[in-house]
Design goal:
Elements (H helix, E strand, L loop, with lengths): L1 H5 L7 E9 L4 E8 L4 E2 L6 E2 L2 E14 L2 E13 L9 E3 L14 H14 L2 H10 L5 H9 L11 E10 L3 E8 L4 E6 L4 H10 L5 E4 L3 H10 L4 E4 L1 H16 L3 H18 L4 E3 L8 H23 L7 H8 L3 H9 L22 H9 L5 H8 L8 H15 L14 E3 L8 H9 L7 H11 L3 H18 L6 H10 L3 H12 L1 H7 L7 H16 L6 H9 L6
Parallel strand pairs: 2-6, 8-11, 11-12, 13-14
Antiparallel strand pairs: 1-2, 3-4, 5-6, 6-7, 8-9, 9-10
């Protein structure tokens, strides 16, 4: 009995009168009675000693080991002694045990709230059933909904970012205290008026961190004109990477030469005679010729576009003469000269065999060349492709070694076959290497960039300008920002000039990012958490529930 007495939710309000244990059903029932002799009227607050009657409340409580626990509590009804009160009879309250009219104890409700906040409905219901807190998913979501949002003081440093309720259709705004890294509130949309109203209602913010959004810039300028706006460094680097990819797209011929030279270095470094196997084209000769013809047509159109402005032709006139849209005319005019060979598709050279090529080449160079045998060796290690895919790859190996068709047997020694480890050197890959920190580049990646800058003077200029901008951000050299803008203006690379023009339009916030310690990194991290919560609820959470799960801290965390 002493042990059961320790299980009570309140030792001062309840007395244990007895218990019943159903071993087969794994259920424990405690019979309790209230020890209060005085109760306060919930309407007028007048104390009363006059007992009217007794009744019992059944409360579900926390499970005890493998036993579910129920409390049968006998409580009193009292007469209200205040003649002016409209309540004549009231029931006594047990504030430490359960809320009025509740069928669960407060401590059980708190556990259910924690499960609902952490996991949501369906996943929380599955876990709760295993832990002894059997409850439906809807109930688990109803408990967090009843919670109130925690109060907060207006932060001195605020981070702002948008998030998607439904990507491409409906967006909201997330507000984060950057000093404590705690989310404050979610706004129902990302309109400038909404954020402006919130900022005016919460004066005193000294620093505002944001991405490059013009909408947020306008809202911050109107809602908190005295605050310092800081552009996020991650987004600045991302914008630079996108511009670099667009610029390098005009130098695909030079990048192809760099890729070939890299493969040649791999051949000369090999201790024995080797050959490189390259992927077979997956399109027919007719389709490949059509791709080249389309590229020639684009090159011809671009040359015509670049000649016409000298004759004082407007973009609309050029578009009408060439049968193109004004957007295409503007894009072709801003791009460097298009390469003769179009860009490869992103999936070029990828195959289901990629994870197994190293092991497959080992077997091939050891003399195991029958496709059926190789298929039997690959399937146990996880290969799920077809025999035809394997045969197409093997045909490339045979062609690289100069072997005749498979029906002829060859007795002469064959060179070893290798496959280039590095992916094709695309503009996207080149842009990534440029913005990568020098200390994080591998030796071969540094050599790759050096060979790229040797291919064309423009490439060397692009890399130098990008490195200078990244140093401004990473080493907080705000004083050199104007000199960098002057260099860009003197260069002949139009996409970089357009990038610099956008920076000038947001000059104060960009320069502040080069001297301030604040950034939107914590906001981006919390935005990822918000995406996880959305997916837990299959994207169907309303704003109030999403905000409760996102902002309200979980008890004990």
């Amino acid at each position: 009995m002493e042990l059961l007495h320790c299980l009570l939710p309140s030792l001062s309000l309840l007395r244990l009168d007895g218990y019943e244990m159903a071993v087969g059903n794994q259920h424990l029932t405690l019979n309790l009675s209230s020890t209060q002799t005085t109760a306060f009227c919930p309407i007028c607050g007048q104390p009363s000693h006059r007992v009217h009657s007794h009744y019992t409340r059944t409360l579900a409580d926390l499970p005890c080991v493998i036993f579910s626990l129920s409390l049968i509590v006998q409580v009193c009804k009292f007469f209200c002694s205040n003649p002016d009160c409209r309540r004549r009879i009231f029931t006594e309250r047990l504030p430490e045990v359960a809320s009025p009219w509740a069928r669960k104890t407060l401590r059980l409700v708190q556990r259910l709230q924690s499960i609902g906040l952490a996991l949501g409905g369906a996943a929380g219901a599955r876990l709760g059933e295993r832990l002894g807190y059997a409850s439906s998913g809807s109930t688990l979501l109803n408990h967090p909904r009843r919670l109130s949002l925690p109060a907060f003081e207006t932060p001195s440093v605020l981070g702002v970012d948008d998030f998607a309720f439904r990507k491409g259709h409906h967006y909201g705004t997330i507000l984060v205290d950057l000093e404590t890294h705690q989310p404050i509130e979610l706004l129902a949309d990302r309109k400038a008026e909404t954020l402006t109203a919130w900022l005016k209602a919460h004066p005193g913010i000294a620093v505002l961190s944001r991405d490059r959004s013009k909408t947020y810039k306008k809202a911050m300028t109107e809602g908190a004109p005295d605050a310092i706006q800081v552009a996020d460094r991650f987004h600045l680097v991302k914008n630079l990477s996108e511009v670099l990819e667009r610029v390098l797209g005009g130098y695909r011929t030079e990048l192809k030469k760099v890729e070939c030279s890299q493969q040649q270095v791999a051949l000369t470094a090999a201790p024995e005679k080797v050959v490189i196997a390259r992927p077979n084209p997956t399109t027919s000769e007719k389709a490949q010729q059509q791709i080249l013809d389309n590229q020639k047509r684009r090159i011809k159109q671009q040359k015509a576009i670049k000649k016409m402005p000298a004759q004082q032709c407007r973009a609309s006139v050029i578009a009408r003469k060439l049968g193109l849209s004004r957007t295409t005319v503007a894009r072709y005019g801003a791009l460097p000269d298009l390469p003769k060979v179009p860009a490869r598709r992103p999936t070029f050279g990828r195959s289901l065999l990629d994870p197994y090529k190293k092991q497959l080449l080992g077997w091939w160079n050891d003399g195991i060349r029958r496709p059926s045998v190789l298929m039997e060796l690959l399937q146990p290690v996880g290969y799920e492709g077809t025999l035809r895919t394997l045969q197409r790859y093997i045909s490339g190996l045979r062609r690289a070694q100069g072997l005749p068709p498979a029906r002829f047997r060859v007795a002469k020694p064959l060179p070893k076959v290798i496959v280039p480890d590095s992916p094709p050197f695309t503009p996207k890959q080149a842009a990534y290497l440029i913005v990568l920190r020098p200390e994080n580049r591998k030796t071969e990646e540094t050599d790759l960039l050096d060979r790229m800058t040797q291919q064309h003077p423009d490439l060397a200029m692009i890399v130098d300008l990008a490195d200078d901008f990244l140093k401004l951000l990473r080493q907080r050299q705000a004083n050199a920002f104007d000199d960098w803008l002057y260099k860009i203006e003197k260069s002949s690379i139009k996409p970089l000039q357009t990038f610099a023009k956008g920076l000038i339009e947001d000059y104060a916030a960009v320069k502040a990012s080069m001297s301030s310690e604040w950034s939107n990194g914590p906001v981006e991290g919390l935005n990822n958490k918000l995406k996880m919560l959305k997916r837990q609820m299959y994207g169907r959470a309303s704003l109030d529930l999403l905000e409760k799960r996102f902002v309200v801290p979980i008890a004990g965390s």
